[in-house]
Design a protein that fits this description.
Order of helices and strands: HEHEEHEEHH
Largest sheet: 3 strands, antiparallel
Shape: elongated
Number of helices: 5
Structural class: alpha+beta
Strand content: 5-15%
Radius of gyration: 22 Å
Low-confidence stretches: 192-201
Strand order of the largest sheet: 2-3-5
Distance between the termini: 41 Å
Helix content: 25-40%
Number of strands: 5
Mean pLDDT: 80
C-alpha cells in the first residue's frame, strides 16, 4: 500500500490565511481522533505505517535464475557511496560473458545514509533497496551485512521492494559521474578485459 503524496503549494503569501488553514487541519484531525474516526497512533509492531514504493530501506542484492548474484564487482556502488560503507572483493567467473563476481560484499548499515546512490550507479541493477526500516542489533558486527544475508533479503516479502531503477530517471547522471570518478581517481574503466569477446548465441 503506497503512502499518500501531498502536493504543497509554496506560492502562498505569508499572513493570517495560511495560519488559519494550518489550524483548520489541526482541528479537523483533533475532532477525528476524539470521536474515534481515525487513530492518532499506530500499534507497532503488530501494525505498521504504509510506506512508499520508493522508500529507501535496508538493501537487497538481487540474484540470477541460477542463484548467483547479479553483481559483477565493478565497484561503482562502492565508488559513488558518500559514506564509504560498501566493501567489495572480487573473483573471476569462468563464463566469458561475466567478467567477475563478488566473493565478498559487505554494507555497514550503521554508516549508510540510505541515499540510494548505490542503486543509481549499478550497471547491472544488482542492488535495490527494500521498505524495511527495522534496524536492530546488539553489536556493530551484526549490522555489517554480508553478501549471503543481502541475497537472502530478496525473500523477505513482508516489506516488499523499495527504491529501485525503474522508479526514477536520475540513475543515468549518477552512473556517468561514478564512471568518471573510477576513471580519473583509480584509472579503472569497467567492461570486458582486452582480447575477450562475449559469447555469441
Amino acid at each position: 500500500m503506497a503512502a499518500k503524496v501531498v502536493t504543497v503549494n509554496r506560492d502562498t503569501r505569508p499572513g493570517i490565511y495560511p495560519i488559519a488553514i494550518g489550524m483548520g487541519i489541526t482541528l479537523k484531525n483533533l475532532v477525528k481522533t476524539l470521536f474515534g474516526r481515525s487513530a492518532a497512533t499506530v500499534q507497532f509492531p503488530e501494525q505498521k505505517r504504509p510506506t512508499s514504493g520508493r522508500y529507501r530501506g535496508i538493501h537487497i542484492l538481487t540474484q540470477r535464475e541460477d542463484g548467483t548474484p547479479k553483481c559483477v564487482a565493478c565497484y561503482m556502488c562502492a565508488t559513488v557511496c558518500p559514506a564509504e560503507c560498501i566493501y567489495i572483493e572480487s573473483g573471476e567467473r569462468p563464463e566469458a560473458t561475466i567478467e567477475k563476481y563478488p566473493t565478498r560484499f559487505e554494507i555497514d548499515l550503521l554508516r549508510c545514509v540510505y541515499c540510494g546512490f548505490c542503486v543509481d550507479a549499478c550497471p547491472e541493477e544488482a542492488i535495490i533497496m527494500s521498505r524495511e526500516n527495522d534496524l536492530v542489533g546488539t553489536s556493530r558486527a551484526e549490522l555489517i551485512i554480508d553478501r549471503d544475508r543481502l541475497m537472502e533479503r530478496g525473500k523477505v516479502t513482508e516489506y516488499g521492494p523499495g527504491y529501485r531503477p525503474p522508479d526514477h530517471d536520475v540513475r543515468r547522471p549518477v552512473r556517468i559521474a561514478a564512471l568518471e570518478r573510477l576513471r580519473t581517481e583509480h584509472g579503472i574503466v569497467p567492461g570486458m578485459p582486452a582480447g575477450v569477446q562475449p559469447a555469441r548465441r
